[in-house]
Amino acid sequence: MDWLLFLLFLLVGYLLGSIPTGLILGRWLKNIDVRQFGSGKTGATNTLRTLGWKISLSVFLIDALKGGIAVWLPVLYFTDAPDNWLPWVRMLAAFACMLGHDFPIWIGFKGGRGVAVGVGELLVVSPFIWILTFFVTFPTIVITRYVSLGSIVGSVFTVVFTVVAIFAINLDPRYLGFSIVSALLVIVMHRDNITRLLNGTERKLGDKASKVKPSSEQNPTH
Length: 222
What we know:
Belongs to the PlsY family. By secondary structure, the chain is mostly helical. It is 65% helix and 0% strand. Helix 8 packs antiparallel against helix 9.
């Protein structure tokens, strides 16, 4: 295996993830820094509450594209054979992309929560799992109006559906490792949301984001 190429894929994945789409579009289109509102995150959900659904949808699609590219690029070099490195490279590149999104080097390592990136990665790796996960995540968000709850539930069921895919469509079992690690990362990145869900103070879909007070801009909790 070409280790330099392997490391290059990880670096590309991280740098792709580090592109702060919500921050860029917010400043470009509205001259607004989304980090100064709501949760202070740069992802699609906080963008929705700050800038509206049109820009939020663009952020979501671009972030998903970042993840999709990160797991697609290794296919250009590695073959998908049982004894090949492709699953490992794709998993690590995908995880690197999620880390880049959550902890972007360009803006002080404070980004989003990695959900949209994971959606794009999952769609490229296994449309079968993506479809099953969608039909769990989307109803959860619609019924409860909690995007965070839908994201957490979807990440957990991704692990379940990966096990299903291993037996149903002969998915390489090594992808189970990525589904577990990515689910754990999503849950960890939603730990403040989990606290608010338990306290009954979590924002629902459609709620507007309030501006972060100057004294708490470095550690927003709304």
